[in-house]
């Protein structure tokens, strides 16, 4: 897996504005003006965010006459998801082992408690 590509992807995803832009593009292509509408920032500021997303390979820009639509490019997101999946599996397996260990401890406590009751006269 390309670690530099992952670094660029995660850096681009670190900003909530850029994540919101990607979420909007998940429902279809949009112009810069359409992407800028929900934000209280200038078009040049939104364009800078788009440039970061484009450099990370997360969006592409097309050209249709005067309209330059932005589109989501999901390949870098898949790479990031694949990388994260390895750690999800690690934590899931670790938590499963912890759960089994706790279950064993609880069973041992129950056994010890029963054995303790048998030693005392009634």
Assembly state: single chain
Element-by-element helix/strand order: HHHHEEH
Strand content: under 5%
Distance between the termini: 67 Å
List the keywords:
5% strand; two-stranded antiparallel ribbon; mainly alpha; 122 residues; 2 strands
Describe this structure in words.
With 122 residues, this protein is mainly alpha-helical. 69% of the residues lie in helices and 5% in strands. A two-stranded antiparallel sheet has the order 1-2. Strand 1 and strand 2 (70-72) form a beta hairpin. The termini are far apart.
Brief overview, please?
The protein has helices at 3-13, 16-25, 32-36, 43-55, 75-119, and strands at 59-61, 70-72. By secondary structure, the protein is mainly α. A hairpin with an 8-residue loop joins β1 and β2.
Question: How are the SSEs ordered, and which strands pair?
Answer:
Layout: H1 3-13, H2 16-25, H3 32-36, H4 43-55, E1 59-61, E2 70-72, H5 75-119
Antiparallel strand pairs: 1-2
């Amino acid at each position: 897996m390309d670690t530099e590509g992952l670094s660029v992807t995660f850096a681009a995803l670190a900003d909530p504005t850029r994540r919101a832009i990607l979420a909007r593009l998940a429902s279809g292509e949009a112009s810069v003006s359409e992407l800028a509408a929900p934000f209280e920032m200038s078009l040049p500021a939104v364009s800078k965010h788009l440039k970061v997303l484009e450099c990370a390979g997360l969006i592409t820009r097309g050209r249709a006459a005067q309209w330059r639509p932005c589109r989501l490019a999901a390949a870098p997101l898949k790479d990031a998801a694949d990388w994260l999946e390895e750690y999800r599996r690690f934590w899931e397996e670790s938590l499963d082992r912890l759960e089994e260990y706790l279950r064993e401890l609880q069973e041992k406590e129950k056994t010890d408690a029963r054995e303790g009751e048998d030693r005392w006269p009634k």
